[in-house]
Every structure is written in C-alpha cells, then in structure tokens.
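Bump. Still looking for DZIP3-like HEPN domain-containing protein structure tokens.
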Amino acid sequence: MAKEYTKEQLNYFRICYVTTDVLADGLREIFKIEWDKLYKSTKGEWRDDPRNGFDFYIGESPRNQRKNAHLLATMRNGNREEWDCTMLFYAILYSDCVGPSLASTVRKNVDDLRNFRNTEFAHIPQGRLSDMDFKNAISKVDVTFQALGLPTVKIQEIQNQATFPTKHLLNILKEVDNVLTDQLRKEVPSFCILPPKPAHDIGSRDREVEKIAQQLKQLKKANCNRLSYSYISGNPGSGKSQLAGLVAQRFYEEEWSIGDKISHLKMLIEAKINYYTSWLMIVDNVTTLSSVHVHLPQSGNEAWARGQLLITTQDTTSIPLESSLVNHVSVSKGMEPDDASCLLAKLSGITDGELGAGVAKNWIISLLP
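Sorry for the wait, here they are.
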C-alpha cells in the first residue's frame, strides 16, 4: 500500500524540489551569463564543453585548485548539468574566474540563495513544513530569482502543486539526502589557534580577562553587522600577548560551547532521521547525566520515535528507574564467566573447556577487590 503524505510533508517535498532542482538551474544560468560577460570575446562563450572546463580550471589559482580539487574534478569537464549547488556557488561567488568581477547586487542575491540552501532548507526539522513557513520560504526564492532576472514559472508551478509522482518524489528525497549529508560533512568546524605559551608560569589575570571579554560583548552588541576593534597596549614584556590569548580562549569557550555544537548537530540529524525506519545512537562516557539530558532527544518527540539511545556512564545514581522505556545493565563486576573463559582461551591458547573454565573462575576471583 502506497504511503500517504500529509500536507505539511508535501510542503517540505515541494521546497526540497525548489532547492535542489529549480535553484540549481537558476545558478547554472547565472554562471553562464557572468562567464559570457567576461570571456565571450576572448575565451569564448560557455557551451558546456571540455574546452570551457579547461579554461575555467586553468583560470583558478594554484591555491584554489588545491583547496577545491574535489569540486574541480567534475567542474573541469565543463558540463554545468553535472555541477551541483556547491559547485555552482563556488563557481559564481568564490572562483578566481568569476567571483572578483561580480556586481554587488548579483553577489548579494546569489549569496542569499546560498544562505537559504545551507541554513533554512538544511535545518528544516522533521521533514514537515507548515503552509505559512512554506509560503515564506518559497517567497524568498521567488523574490531573489526576480532580482537576478531569472524566470519564476517553475517556482509558481511548484507553489500550486498538490501531489508528486512517486518516481519524481524518490528522486527529490535522494537529492535531499545528498544535500544534508554534504551539510553534515562540510559543516565548518570552530577552531582556536593561540600564541605559544612562554616557558615561565603566567597568571590567569581573571579580572582583566573578564573586563575585556565584557567590552568585546558590548562592542559586538552595539555594532551588530559591523567590524569593531579593541586594543591592548603596554610596554614590552607587560603581558599584552598572553592577555590577548587568555581573552581569545575565553571567547572560544563561551561562543562555541559543547552544548551549542550538540544542538546544531542534533538539528541537522533531525532533519533527515525521519527517513530511517530504525537507528541506534551511542552517547559515550557521560560524566554527569543531568548536564547531558537537555541535549538528548526526548521520548515524546515523534521525529525520534523510531530509534534508541545507548548511553554509557559512571554516574550510576542518576540513571532513571527501569520501566517500559528504560533498562540498565551494570558491568561493574566485570565480564560474565563464560565470556571471560572465551577471552582467556583466546589469549592463552587453552582449548580444554573444563580446564579453561576453572582457570577463568580463579582468575576472576583473583581480580575481585
């Protein structure tokens, strides 16, 4: 029996199609327009042939060739139909051939599409979208296409579409899975590179660090979308560099907390986990269950209903009582005798079952406190 999808799920599928198909087609057109504008009289207009791909490739700096080798391996063939959105955004916004010459309005609108794909679309939870959220999402794409001078007929058709042919829907879901997998793999990690510590001991300078950290927050709040500056001055050896390093460490720890990373990762996973009939997530070596509980999927959330959590911890006192949803296995006493016998036989080469069992029993007893 064919699965029936809710209206909210169909809204999600429709915005997926716009993002993976319509958006990509629009980007292909923008790239050709920009390329022809720059190179039609020299390298020739873009015809999706290998010569175009070669010209594009050699126009990239050695740094870009190294950094984007995985993209350029496909792009150098020259066929835009083989380029996904990641390749197209690179070609338009970040390539040496096109990026530096983009008009500011084109750059802004293409970047708006990039942000839409990488944030709003990729982070839609549970594979569902309300009518209002769908209208808002598709309106953003529609307005941006108009600003870029791209046709919006397909967008209007999808906006009025009520059903999907099965084969078409399967292709969309496959594209969505590719996008979300790409998002998980390419999510930019935070990093913290500090000046090397001196050989001598240094003070924590907590009061100064706190004062500067608060000043940075105030500057950021007062200049939401503008670069702000903070200066530390002093004589040689007064500790300017080390104080700056301590402030940077504080900034990193506050801005990129483990909780934020977990929440972000959970959001990405939640957007695609609905497509799996069964899953098991391991949360390993939890030191304090109470501090982690807020980040774990909750049993009442339908998006996570098909899976299970396996949690390892030393915090025995905080484990909930056993119920229809919870069980608890303690391994504090070590391995089961049969398992210990098997391990001993493997390590010692003893093949006699009874002898091995006797040795294992004595071995286990000797290891008990």
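The CA atoms of residues 36 and 45 lie 5 Å apart.

Edit: fixed formatting.
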